[in-house]
Amino acid sequence: ITDKLRSSGLLRTQGLIGGKWTDAYDGKTLEVHNPATGEVLADVSCMGQKETNDAISSAYDTFISWSKVTAAERSKCLRKWYDLLMAHKEELGQLITLEQGKPLKEAIGEVSYGASFVEFFAEEAKRVYGDIIPATLPDRRLFVLRQPVGVVGAITPWNFPLAMITRKVGPALACGCTVVIKPSELTPLTALAAAELSLQAGIPPGAVNVIMGNAPAIGDALLASPQVRKITFTGSTAVGKKLMAGAAATVKKVSLELGGNAPCIIFNDADLDVAVKGTLAAKFRNSGQTCVCANRVLVQEGIYEKFANALSKAVQNLKVGEGFTEGAIQGPLINKAALEKVETFVQEAVSKGAKVLLGGKRHSLGMTFYEPTVIGDVKSDMLLSREEVFGPVAPLLRFKTEEEAIHMANDTNAGLAAYIFTTNVQRTWRVSEALEYGLVGVNEGLISTEVAPFGGVKQSGLGREGSKYGMDEYLEFSSYEICML
Ligand code: ADP
User: Fold this and answer.
1) Is 436 a catalytic residue?
2) Does the Cβ of 378 fall within 6 Å of ligand 1?
């Protein structure tokens, strides 16, 4: 942690309740580590049910006033927050690299991406239009208002410590909601810094609260409170299902962004360079630790050998290193459990006949570094095909026909992102529409943007984030019938 970062005022270690930086009531703390070095970066407040309930109360009180502020005023506050996030791109990027591990350039890229949601929703705040409906009787008038849902509980993961927060909190605040954020305990420092900037932007105290510590206790408190009207979650499918079940007791609105099992389909007619570049981007971003990362690379027989060679060559050039190392493109995995999962999946595949074309073992840098890996002859029944590996491993599976590729791609309970590489226009449409996925990239491996709806089908989730559609997740439609006496 540099002196500049220390003196920036952005290095916060307490929770944020009602605009006040607050210790855990019992004084407990938890350590935040740098995954690349194991170094302890900070001791942050380790909170639970009591602190969560107080944060909910303050969010509720603030909701009463914030929801009545004009849209233009809310928009200005969000715009100011965006400006501050961008002005502190370097410091926020450093925090992300320190606690999450991704290379600094990628981390600063996440700050721009994360901030873009705040900018976009600052603009959308002004466009929460209602509707007037032709009435069924002559003396009646019917109209519809879109009203903010209320207090929002936002539970976020470690892989995008900033962006997963802003794409929930941006639209929530824009609509007039207030939030209690529970960031991942692995990456709370970025969340706390972003919250500090929200205060500096003039977003009222109590509109943004941050609680971290005992995840199940905090989650249960959010679920139990009738004042929390919405839960928005990004993370594992298992926890998402628990939250959805828990939200039933108080019938909350729920948005879930859960696990994926993204197929990346390379057809014989693909442009080889485009396919390699796209697969590299879709697979190795954040060392493979995103829910839209290509999890299975399905390659048609006619191009298999050529593609496998070209991809292996390209992957060999990915420089592995600690995030502040010049030129590093692949950082460490988030923790030991993540590393062991990758190892287990690779070992299982090899034991069943898959072939390591590149990498396939821990990196000589030690810690949680794993070599960027390409594995050939992977089969559909292997763990690498059935579950998210969340690491820098590209498994190649062969297919013969387009129908077979579509069947293999859809043969999963997940349905978040899919990628296809082809130069045939008819095939583009045919296959894109046949894929049971919320997001499809054609000849492109990077498809996340604040202006398009992001979300999954099947067990990959509910609801959409980003874009004009992302606003509706935080709004209720209220219908009014006026009788003109
Ligand atoms: P990942 O495997 O990506 O860490 P998790 O679903 O475990 O995914 O974590 C995503 C977020 O969910 C984190 O903030 C984590 O602390 C939180 N979380 C985990 N278990 C629970 C729970 N029982 N209730 C509420 N939040 C939880």
Assistant:
1) no
2) no
